[in-house]
Specification:
single chain; 659 residues; mainly beta; Immunoglobulin-like; 7 domains; five-stranded mixed beta sheet; 1 helix; 72 strands; 2% helix; 54% strand; elongated; disordered N terminus
Length: 659
Amino acid sequence: MFPRFWKFGFLATALLALSTLSKAATISGFTPDRGGPGAEVTVIGTGLQNVLFVYFGGTEASGEILSRSATSVRARVPPNALTGQISVFINGGGFATSLPIFVTTPRFESFIPLTGAPGSLVTISGFNFGTGQFGSRGNVTSVLFNGQPALFEISGLNQLLTLVPTNATTGPITLVNEAGSTSSLIPFTVAPLISSITPTNGMPGDPIIIQGSNLGTAINVEFGLERASFSVISPSNLVARVPTNAVNARIQISTPAGTIATAQPFVVLPRIFDFQPRIGTTGTNVVLQGGGFHGVTGVEFNGTRATFTFRSSIQVDAVVPSGASTGPIRLITTNGTFTTTEFFHLPSRITSFNPNSGERDDVITIDGQNLSGTSRVLFNGVEAGFTITSPTRLTAVVPAAATSGRVTVESPAGSVLSSGTFNVIPVLDGFSPGNATVGSPVTLAGAGLTNLVWVRLGGVDMSFTLLSPTAVRAIVPLDAFSGTLRIRNLNGNEIQAPGTFIVDGARPTLTSFTPSEGVAGTRVVITGKGLATTSRVQFNGVDAVLGTRTSTSVEATVPANASTGLIAVTTLDGIAVSTSNFVIREPVVSLAISRGVASDEIVLRWSASATGYVLQSSASIGTGANWTTVSGTPVAEGANLRLTQVIPATGARFYRLRK
């Protein structure tokens, strides 16, 4: 039982021959009575001061004696200790053995098989399993598979049998007794179990979540015959990506403990990774590459069915059909469909645009074919913002720098020009500076400022230079007066800038007026220079009603209360006064007399405009006539005044209007 005992028994005999025989040792007890390797145990007795060796169940605690005294010796439990009695050997001969036993932890040697499914039998070999030799003391009380308790039976001093528990997972096997526990250095690998996959269908490259148990040691994941890339998230969860060549099949997971497959096949949906070429015309052969192409039933180019040839689950060839337009390619299979996000492009065509002229920021509608892939729209080479509304229509915004010319539509399939010309209508936003002297430059800003035939200040032409489609520089001309700035282009579009340009130092002049005399209400044409901005005309200080104005003339109507005097014209550049008087003539006022309703009445009528006149009467005319004011209040009658008088019974009566 103690192989080293005899070895050291000879040593003890030799020592006895060389020294005085020592008193025999005794062991009365020890504490603690159980523990694993490395645990410190104090043995109590007598004659222990000369202890050379300590054995735990026949295993020497070599180099593990910590202290000695006559009544005790302290030692550590050796790594390979066996459950059993503690013995000590004394220098000079003799030994002592305890009556009670010391229980140490179980010790693994091996287990077979290394892998298995729940319910399979595993044989574990080692030490300290217990067989009833010491009663129930030291017996293994639990067997755990990665923490899960298992059924077991001690079949021998160094062997036990156990069944893999139902919910076991891959991990170490642990043996437990009253002294503690010991776990295997290598794990027991439990066969995998698949509980669910999410989703149950997918396209090549899609991630699939596989849940179950004992998946952490997965070696391979296969969709049918196609191996998939995968990542282990946890022992119960891994993520695999659908292989490109996969077809409908069960998913298999292989581990060192075995292989398991899903109960139902995984359905592979189609996915197009690429197609070539991406540009072509009717009849072009297009190669579609991807996965999940098995069971293909149709290919469409932007909704138009095409003829196709199935090459493999990763390739289909299709021919661009007649009537196809720029747009996505759609692959149809018995498992599902896939539509590309990228377009197959056919050459664009412009059939019309409306309207055919416009100014900056106007929206133009362009009609044609294969406009879905439009990447740029240009007005005579100037890029414009646009919106695709359908494969046959788009709208574009006339850019500020646009000039008259043809419209261009660009796409990956190339560029196309309109047959007609779009005419850009000019726009004037303003000018700078707002005032200047003759000979100074002024810049007009706007859009569409090309093909100009003239620039004018008031009615006077200005020399000008085109700086860009959005700017033109003009020079304030000689004899210029303040007024509006205008432009005209070859298409006949005339545009006026907002506001009025002021010519510093300009002064209006009057040269003549026609007629030179008249009554209230007479229309007078006044000529001169710088009269386009006339805001006021006065006849001897009385405001007149204005008529037509040009840079060289202005019309005015003589006011009712005007008197003979000078004519004054007010413009933005100042006031111009005539050098001669306009003469106000007295108007001819007529008095009409007619018989009244009664036989003894007469009715007198005269113009209501004859202001300042008094109606008088007299019994005679000539020198010495006595004229008196006629009593009564005239009544308005249209443009006339009317007054009724009674005819005298005897004699004559004369009437007149007197101012």
